[in-house]
Structure of N-(5'-phosphoribosyl)anthranilate isomerase:
Amino acid sequence: MTLVKVCGIRRGEDVEFLNKLLPDYAGFVFCKSKRQVTLKLAEELVKKLDKRIKRVGIFQNNSLEEVKNTAEMLKLDVIQLHGREDENYIKNLHPFKIWKSVSIDVKSSLEDLKDKIDKISNCNVEAVLVDSSVGGKTGGTGTSFNWNVLENLNINKKLVLAGGLNPDNINTALECVKPYVVDVSSGVEENGVKSFKKIDQFIKKVRNF
């Protein structure tokens, strides 16, 4: 069964929603984003988070020291990387589980994507996270991509599907792709904040698929 990650957790109310709905993963953003949290705030939120929900820290070109310190302080289950982090950088994060992103946009050629995924697949990562990019912006774009392109990519790691997912399109996405995890953020928000109703709808659709 596909697992669910709700990303961009930044309020006590968000944690309350998750504790009632129990997604498999909760994501906390530590890089430039409107959903970015400080380490202090993340510590407060994680203390309240149900222990059954795994903790994911999202980073993009953060210093290795910052990532390791954050991961250790919060006892992260997964470190999710969205930047230029290379194989050596990833080796230095052992023994944490790593999800490394690759971005797809309308200008991405199949060969470019294959090259990116081959490089990630050669690294010691648990999963490849496939996300959309818009105008060079990666992660948190709220825009989906053509999921059918994944049929032509040989991904030998677990697949995390992100980018523009919401309760209205998740069934279509799951018909095209059979990911290990689906990752949602803006798709379960209203007026820029997490919506209990939308998170509930999203999780139910994934688990009933």
In short: The chain has one domain: 3-207. The helical segments are 12-21, 39-48, 64-74, 87-91, 110-121, 170-176, 196-207. The chain has a mean pLDDT of 93. The longest strand covers residues 97-104.
